[in-house]
Amino acid sequence: MSEHTYGDRLAIREALQQFGRLNRPVAELADETDLFSVGFTSHATVNVMLAIEDALGIEFPDELLNRSTFVSIEALASAIEISRGQA
Amino acid sequence: MTGAELPWAALRQRLLDAGVLAELGEPGLFALGAEFNRAFDALDALYVRTFADLNAESWRFPAVEPKSVFEKTDYVASFPQLTGSLSVFTGGTPEHAALLKARAAGAGWEDHLHPSGLMMSPAACHPLYALLTGSLPAGGRTFDVLGSCFRHEPSPDPMRMQTFRMHEVVHVGTAESAIAHRDQTAPRLVEMLTSIGLEVEYVLANDPFFGRTGRIMASNQREAALKFEITTKVYGDEAPETAIGSANYHNDHFGTAFGILDANGQVAHSACLGLGMERTLLALFAKHGLSTNAWPQAVRSALWQGNE
């Protein structure tokens, strides 16, 4: 766990709330919930990605730009960690 | 590389010399000649005959669509580089004077125009979904849509026109019926294209999603195996193949965006089979020659004698 973890997860949930077009409130979701099972789409991942990058001042590396990065809040948090490691 | 070495240069010149196509002065913009139109009518009729048993409801749409429709399709998120919006003059006398002044000075004057709220349709079936908001009957509905598409990808390759027609057979229903539509119509289209002498392959699609965000879309399209293309080699075995048709399961993308429900009240799923008319016709001219009268008898009979 890094010092960023809590803030990262807040930023992820905020981005999902605003741009995720999910069919359940983000507050009800566990970090491990499969986002694609609650209405997340590949079109929505694009806006969520941009919002997270803006909020945290990071850029996901190209190799993380795929479906598995966006499958859960947990997966997004790991992707953010990896992105920071490469910056 | 000189023009003559480019894979498309020779075919392009032959098409122009024979009057199958004429250049209009911008890349990817052509006038279509008599031989082309003769073959178009025959190919179009063959396509309709091929899927006649589906009793598809026929709709035709203008080349432009309302921005409200364009927005719901999310097209600009995936393909901003292909997007075209129609601008119009909305000013009064002073604004007209400013436009004329810019024009007289030899400057670009199009920035004196303003977005009209009309977008160039990038796909024939997009405006259809806006007609379907509400509930579908049991079994869903199947449509025949022929429309003009605009995609801003200027290229000297005649196989890549900026404006072209796509003839689609679209199904809107349940996930099961939409996937079945894609998987049952595609092999029939492959068979139809084979009957007119084209060697085609049915492969996973490789759409040009834009930029970094596009990588996610492309990876999702591949992983979920949503869309397939029918490709053919127009420029020989060394050059890359070109897609002339596609079979696309949209999941519930359009059902959600346009508020379409299946007979059970669930969000509808959709799929479309599409044939790129201009590309298919140029593939035929490349393969069989520039005069339709000289095309192989089997091809001619498939195209022109289907009703006999």
Topology:
The complex is a heterodimer of chains A (87) and B (308).
Chain A: H1 5-19, H2 42-56, H3 73-86
Helix pairs in contact in A: 1-2, 1-3
Chain B: H1 9-17, E1 21-23, E2 30-32, H2 34-50, E3 57-60, E4 64-66, H3 67-73, H4 75-78, E5 85-88, H5 93-104, E6 114-120, H6 126-130, E7 134-135, E8 141-150, E9 163-173, H7 175-195, E10 200-204, H8 211-223, E11 227-232, E12 242-251, H9 253-258, E13 260-261, E14 269-276, H10 277-288, H11 297-304
Helix pairs in contact in B: 2-10
Model description:
The complex is a heterodimer of chains A (87) and B (308). Chain A has 87 residues and is an all-alpha fold. Chain A has one domain (5-86): Non-ribosomal Peptide Synthetase Peptidyl Carrier Protein, Chain A (Orthogonal Bundle). Chain A is 51% helix and 0% strand. Chain A has helices at residues 5-19, 42-56, 73-86. Chain B has 308 residues and is an alpha+beta fold. Chain B has two domains: 3-84 and 122-304, Bira Bifunctional Protein, Domain 2 (BirA Bifunctional Protein, domain 2, 2-Layer Sandwich); 88-119, no CATH class. Chain B has eleven helices and 14 strands. Chain B has helices at residues 9-17, 34-50, 67-73, 75-78, 93-104, 126-130, 175-195, 211-223, 253-258, 277-288, 297-304, and strands spanning 21-23, 30-32, 57-60, 64-66, 85-88, 114-120, 134-135, 141-150, 163-173, 200-204, 227-232, 242-251, 260-261, 269-276. In chain B, β1 and β2 (30-32) form a beta hairpin. In chain B, α2 (34-50) packs across α10 (277-288). The mean pLDDT of chain B is 94. The chains are: A mainly alpha (87), B alpha+beta (308). The interface between A and B is medium-sized, with 15 and 16 residues.
